[in-house]
Amino acid sequence: MTPHPLDDPVPPADAREIRRLLLFCGSRSGADPCHAGTAAAIGRLVAERGVTLVYGGGSLGLMGEAGRAAIAAGGTVQGVIPRFLKDLEVAEPLCRDMAVVGSLHARKALMFERADAVLALPGGLGTLEELVEILSWRHLRLHAKPVWLLGDNAFWSPFIALIDHMLGSGFVGPNCHAVLEQLESVDALAARLPAA
Predict the structure, then answer these.
(1) What CA–CA distance (Å, rounded) separates 59 from 183?
(2) Which of 31, 23, 27 lies closest to 78 in space, CA to CA?
(3) 18-190 in CATH: which number?
(4) Domain map of the chain by residue range?
(5) How does pLDDT run across 95-134, given as a tens digit for each residue?
(6) pTM (predicted TM-score)
(7) What's the rounded Cα separation, in Å, for the pair 86 and 73?
(8) What residues contact residue 161 under an 8 Å CB cut-off, 6+ apart?
(9) Do residues 39 and 119 make contact, with C-beta atoms less than 8 angstroms apart?
Protein backbone atom coordinates (compact mmCIF):
# COMPACT_ATOMS: atom_id res chain seq x y z
CA MET A 1 0.00 0.00 0.00
CA THR A 2 1.38 3.43 -0.95
CA PRO A 3 2.17 5.63 2.07
CA HIS A 4 -0.06 8.64 2.50
CA PRO A 5 1.49 12.02 3.42
CA LEU A 6 -0.86 12.33 6.39
CA ASP A 7 0.49 9.10 7.88
CA ASP A 8 3.45 11.03 9.30
CA PRO A 9 3.04 11.57 13.06
CA VAL A 10 0.59 14.29 14.01
CA PRO A 11 2.29 17.04 16.04
CA PRO A 12 1.26 16.92 19.70
CA ALA A 13 -1.49 19.20 20.92
CA ASP A 14 -0.41 22.66 22.00
CA ALA A 15 0.52 22.35 25.67
CA ARG A 16 0.06 26.03 26.54
CA GLU A 17 -2.36 26.90 29.28
CA ILE A 18 -6.01 26.65 28.28
CA ARG A 19 -7.70 30.02 28.82
CA ARG A 20 -10.68 29.63 26.45
CA LEU A 21 -12.58 26.37 26.02
CA LEU A 22 -14.87 25.82 23.04
CA LEU A 23 -17.79 23.60 23.97
CA PHE A 24 -19.77 21.71 21.34
CA CYS A 25 -22.95 20.11 22.70
CA GLY A 26 -26.62 19.56 22.08
CA SER A 27 -29.35 22.16 22.03
CA ARG A 28 -31.45 19.32 23.46
CA SER A 29 -30.93 17.75 26.88
CA GLY A 30 -31.15 14.15 25.68
CA ALA A 31 -32.99 11.23 27.25
CA ASP A 32 -30.39 10.57 29.96
CA PRO A 33 -30.43 13.28 32.69
CA CYS A 34 -26.77 12.67 33.51
CA HIS A 35 -25.74 14.64 30.40
CA ALA A 36 -27.34 17.85 31.72
CA GLY A 37 -25.57 17.37 35.04
CA THR A 38 -22.23 16.98 33.28
CA ALA A 39 -22.83 20.09 31.17
CA ALA A 40 -23.61 22.15 34.28
CA ALA A 41 -20.56 20.75 36.09
CA ILE A 42 -18.36 21.81 33.19
CA GLY A 43 -19.85 25.31 33.25
CA ARG A 44 -19.04 25.59 36.96
CA LEU A 45 -15.56 24.12 36.49
CA VAL A 46 -14.47 26.55 33.79
CA ALA A 47 -15.79 29.47 35.84
CA GLU A 48 -13.87 28.31 38.92
CA ARG A 49 -10.68 27.92 36.90
CA GLY A 50 -10.95 31.33 35.20
CA VAL A 51 -11.38 29.73 31.78
CA THR A 52 -13.68 31.49 29.30
CA LEU A 53 -16.50 29.30 27.98
CA VAL A 54 -16.97 29.75 24.24
CA TYR A 55 -20.19 28.13 23.05
CA GLY A 56 -23.11 28.32 20.64
CA GLY A 57 -25.02 30.88 22.69
CA GLY A 58 -28.28 28.97 23.05
CA SER A 59 -30.40 28.72 26.18
CA LEU A 60 -31.79 25.26 25.42
CA GLY A 61 -30.46 21.79 26.15
CA LEU A 62 -26.91 21.06 27.23
CA MET A 63 -25.80 24.36 25.72
CA GLY A 64 -28.06 26.28 28.07
CA GLU A 65 -27.08 24.15 31.08
CA ALA A 66 -23.35 24.81 30.56
CA GLY A 67 -23.74 28.51 29.77
CA ARG A 68 -26.02 29.31 32.69
CA ALA A 69 -23.89 27.31 35.15
CA ALA A 70 -20.76 29.19 34.08
CA ILE A 71 -22.54 32.56 34.34
CA ALA A 72 -24.06 31.70 37.75
CA ALA A 73 -20.58 30.78 39.03
CA GLY A 74 -19.21 34.17 37.93
CA GLY A 75 -17.45 32.92 34.80
CA THR A 76 -16.79 34.61 31.49
CA VAL A 77 -19.00 33.27 28.71
CA GLN A 78 -18.82 34.12 25.01
CA GLY A 79 -21.79 33.03 22.92
CA VAL A 80 -21.83 32.89 19.13
CA ILE A 81 -25.16 32.35 17.40
CA PRO A 82 -26.31 32.71 13.79
CA ARG A 83 -29.00 35.28 13.19
CA PHE A 84 -31.47 32.66 11.87
CA LEU A 85 -31.05 30.53 15.01
CA LYS A 86 -31.18 33.40 17.47
CA ASP A 87 -34.92 33.02 17.97
CA LEU A 88 -35.14 29.28 17.29
CA GLU A 89 -32.52 28.42 19.94
CA VAL A 90 -33.59 31.27 22.18
CA ALA A 91 -30.24 32.99 22.65
CA GLU A 92 -29.24 32.92 26.31
CA PRO A 93 -30.40 36.28 27.75
CA LEU A 94 -27.89 36.07 30.63
CA CYS A 95 -24.92 35.92 28.25
CA ARG A 96 -23.62 39.50 28.00
CA ASP A 97 -21.01 38.69 25.31
CA MET A 98 -23.12 37.36 22.44
CA ALA A 99 -21.90 37.60 18.84
CA VAL A 100 -24.66 37.29 16.25
CA VAL A 101 -23.23 36.10 12.93
CA GLY A 102 -24.61 35.48 9.46
CA SER A 103 -24.25 31.70 9.14
CA LEU A 104 -23.38 28.41 10.79
CA HIS A 105 -20.01 28.53 9.03
CA ALA A 106 -19.26 31.97 10.48
CA ARG A 107 -20.34 30.74 13.93
CA LYS A 108 -17.99 27.77 13.85
CA ALA A 109 -15.07 29.82 12.52
CA LEU A 110 -15.45 32.53 15.18
CA MET A 111 -15.87 30.04 18.02
CA PHE A 112 -12.80 28.13 16.88
CA GLU A 113 -10.75 31.32 16.48
CA ARG A 114 -11.56 32.30 20.08
CA ALA A 115 -10.63 28.92 21.60
CA ASP A 116 -7.47 27.26 22.93
CA ALA A 117 -9.05 23.80 23.15
CA VAL A 118 -12.24 22.04 22.04
CA LEU A 119 -14.53 19.79 24.10
CA ALA A 120 -17.49 17.87 22.65
CA LEU A 121 -20.28 16.69 24.92
CA PRO A 122 -23.24 14.63 23.71
CA GLY A 123 -25.36 16.21 21.02
CA GLY A 124 -27.01 15.63 17.69
CA LEU A 125 -26.14 16.23 14.06
CA GLY A 126 -24.92 19.80 14.62
CA THR A 127 -22.54 18.71 17.39
CA LEU A 128 -21.26 15.85 15.26
CA GLU A 129 -20.74 18.10 12.24
CA GLU A 130 -18.80 20.66 14.29
CA LEU A 131 -16.65 17.99 15.91
CA VAL A 132 -15.81 16.18 12.68
CA GLU A 133 -14.73 19.36 10.93
CA ILE A 134 -12.45 20.37 13.82
CA LEU A 135 -10.98 16.84 13.86
CA SER A 136 -10.44 17.00 10.12
CA TRP A 137 -8.60 20.33 10.47
CA ARG A 138 -6.44 18.81 13.22
CA HIS A 139 -5.70 15.72 11.13
CA LEU A 140 -4.69 18.01 8.23
CA ARG A 141 -2.34 19.89 10.63
CA LEU A 142 -4.26 23.15 10.28
CA HIS A 143 -4.20 23.57 14.05
CA ALA A 144 -2.68 21.96 17.14
CA LYS A 145 -5.46 22.64 19.65
CA PRO A 146 -6.48 19.75 21.90
CA VAL A 147 -9.77 18.10 20.92
CA TRP A 148 -11.54 16.19 23.69
CA LEU A 149 -14.65 14.02 23.94
CA LEU A 150 -16.60 13.63 27.16
CA GLY A 151 -19.86 11.73 27.45
CA ASP A 152 -21.47 9.72 30.19
CA ASN A 153 -22.57 6.11 29.70
CA ALA A 154 -20.26 5.50 26.70
CA PHE A 155 -22.12 8.05 24.57
CA TRP A 156 -19.20 8.41 22.13
CA SER A 157 -18.45 4.68 21.78
CA PRO A 158 -20.30 4.31 18.43
CA PHE A 159 -18.37 7.30 17.05
CA ILE A 160 -15.05 5.76 18.09
CA ALA A 161 -16.20 2.45 16.56
CA LEU A 162 -16.89 4.26 13.29
CA ILE A 163 -13.38 5.76 13.30
CA ASP A 164 -12.01 2.26 13.93
CA HIS A 165 -14.11 0.95 11.03
CA MET A 166 -12.77 3.65 8.69
CA LEU A 167 -9.24 2.85 9.87
CA GLY A 168 -9.73 -0.89 9.28
CA SER A 169 -11.22 -0.14 5.86
CA GLY A 170 -8.18 1.90 4.86
CA PHE A 171 -9.90 5.29 4.60
CA VAL A 172 -8.06 6.98 7.47
CA GLY A 173 -4.51 6.53 8.61
CA PRO A 174 -3.11 5.36 11.93
CA ASN A 175 -2.92 8.97 13.12
CA CYS A 176 -6.68 9.37 13.25
CA HIS A 177 -6.87 8.51 16.95
CA ALA A 178 -3.95 10.84 17.72
CA VAL A 179 -6.07 13.92 16.98
CA LEU A 180 -8.69 13.09 19.59
CA GLU A 181 -8.64 12.30 23.30
CA GLN A 182 -11.52 10.76 25.23
CA LEU A 183 -11.90 12.06 28.77
CA GLU A 184 -13.44 9.75 31.34
CA SER A 185 -14.91 12.40 33.63
CA VAL A 186 -15.19 16.06 34.51
CA ASP A 187 -12.24 15.46 36.84
CA ALA A 188 -10.16 14.42 33.84
CA LEU A 189 -11.02 17.73 32.18
CA ALA A 190 -10.14 19.56 35.39
CA ALA A 191 -6.66 18.02 35.27
CA ARG A 192 -6.08 19.65 31.87
CA LEU A 193 -7.21 23.14 32.87
CA PRO A 194 -5.28 25.78 34.84
CA ALA A 195 -5.37 25.46 38.61
CA ALA A 196 -7.90 27.63 40.43
Answers:
(1) 25
(2) 23
(3) 3.40.50.450
(4) 18-190
(5) 999 999 999 999 999 999 999 999 999 999 999 999 999 9
(6) 0.94
(7) 24
(8) none
(9) no
